[in-house]
């Protein structure tokens, strides 16, 4: 008898307690002995044959929740069945259904009694060892051969013993007349050239020329083409009366790590709408800390928006007098010392000329924002765990910032 039929017979007659594991075998009372890792004729939805050990362990844990069963199987090192196979497998083994398409060989409709079966089982099955469909599968995954001189052999072991590998993963990478080193060199040169061009653009102010700051130019405003900017005009905004100075506008962020937005993670937050903790970004970064990061708004509900570039810095002390004319926003830490040596007399003047943002987690205590509530700043809340909500918070920052810049440019 094959192991699946024997296990079903014992399950139907509530004799699972007679199945005893001894070393690497399962003993079905005094009737049968099968290897524990022997594959049965029950094929899973994924295509593999379940072993006898897997099915016996499943039956002993059939009353548990599936998650508890999986944990038990993992702790015991026993391969588990899949959730989709659970009910049909249990129905078949307990006799609720007489057959299933998951059996790899057809079970006989009228089984003939066998002399070696326990008479108390009540149900006998025909076993035909000459039928290739019913060949037992051994530990190696091949069909078991009849014992020769008392020693059991299997085909897969014999085949594996004479196998000789023709190619391995190293030889597969050896391509005739192909030089992958040149590909590596070319890609490195391309990346170096891209970085050089971006660096030169920042130095020459080409970013500001190609992306007009909110559409204001020498002629008093307006956009020249359908792309949202006039490529022939040059942004020239002065701080007279509170307007923005000439060049790329600046956003200041704290250099302290106890704030949510820093120069390390500001680009991902403002450009991609994703908050990444600073400590995580520091671990991912290669090279020194950047002195300046260029960001632009890459997402918007307004198709006619203007592409505007901003410089993000975290060292106000390094700004020149004319640079302060370009500062349009600041992410505040909530501490007075952040504004030490700033060229303004008080918070009123600061937040009249510069829009302030305070980032906080939505479940933080009210005390964390107690100080900034006395200032004219925008409080932006994000979730500690729900990253899909970051985009809405970043969009709120952009909307407030662009509204402030438009008002200040036309003030």
TrEMBL record:
Residues 248-404 form the Cell division control protein 73 C-terminal domain. InterPro entries: Cdc73/Parafibromin, CDC73_C, CDC73_C_sf, Cdc73_N. Residues 2-103 form the Paf1 complex subunit Cdc73 N-terminal domain. It is found in: Nucleus. Transmembrane segments: none annotated. One of its GO terms (molecular function) is RNA polymerase II complex binding. Keywords: Nucleus, Transcription, Transcription regulation. GO terms for biological process: positive regulation of transcription elongation by RNA polymerase II; transcription elongation by RNA polymerase II. GO terms for cellular component: Cdc73/Paf1 complex. It holds the Pfam family CDC73_C. Its main location: nucleus. Belongs to the CDC73 family. This is PHP.
């Amino acid at each position: 008898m094959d192991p699946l039929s024997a296990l079903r017979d014992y399950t139907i007659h509530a004799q699972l307690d007679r199945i005893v594991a001894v070393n690497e075998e399962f003993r079905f009372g005094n009737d049968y002995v099968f290897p524990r890792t022997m594959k049965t004729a029950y094929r899973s939805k994924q295509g593999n044959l379940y072993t006898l050990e897997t099915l016996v362990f499943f039956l002993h844990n059939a009353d548990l929740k599936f998650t508890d069963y999986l944990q038990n199987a993992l702790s015991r090192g026993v391969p588990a069945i899949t959730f989709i196979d659970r009910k049909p497998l249990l129905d078949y083994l307990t006799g609720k259904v007489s057959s299933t398409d998951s059996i790899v060989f057809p079970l006989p409709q009228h089984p003939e009694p066998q002399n070696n079966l326990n008479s108390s089982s009540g149900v006998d099955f025909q076993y035909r060892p000459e039928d290739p469909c019913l060949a037992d599968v051994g530990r190696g995954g091949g069909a078991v051969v009849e014992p020769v001189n008392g020693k059991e052999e299997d085909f897969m072991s014999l085949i594996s013993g004479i196998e000789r590998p023709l190619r391995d993963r190293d030889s597969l990478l050896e391509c005739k007349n192909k030089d992958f080193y040149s590909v590596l060199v070319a890609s490195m040169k391309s990346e170096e050239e891209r970085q050089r061009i971006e660096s030169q653009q920042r130095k020459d102010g080409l970013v500001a020329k190609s992306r007009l700051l909110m559409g204001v130019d020498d002629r008093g405003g307006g956009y020249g083409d359908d792309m949202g900017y006039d490529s022939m005009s040059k942004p020239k905004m002065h701080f007279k009366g509170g307007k923005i100075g000439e060049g790329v506008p600046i956003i200041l962020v704290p250099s302290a790590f106890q704030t949510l937005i820093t120069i390390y993670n500001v680009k991902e937050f403002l450009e991609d709408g994703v908050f990444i903790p600073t400590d995580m970004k520091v671990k991912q970064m290669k090279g020194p800390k950047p002195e300046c990061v260029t960001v632009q708004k890459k997402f918007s509900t307004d198709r006619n928006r203007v592409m505007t570039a901003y410089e993000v810095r975290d060292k106000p002390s390094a700004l020149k007098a004319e640079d302060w004319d370009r500062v349009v926003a600041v992410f505040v830490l909530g501490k007075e010392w952040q504004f030490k040596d700033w060229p303004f007399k008080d918070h009123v003047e600061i937040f009249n000329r510069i829009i302030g943002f305070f980032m906080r987690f939505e479940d933080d205590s009210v005390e964390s924002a107690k100080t900034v509530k006395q200032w004219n700043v925008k409080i932006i809340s994000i979730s500690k765990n729900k990253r899909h909500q970051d985009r809405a918070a970043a969009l709120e920052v952009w909307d407030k910032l662009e509204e402030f810049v438009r008002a200040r440019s036309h003030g």
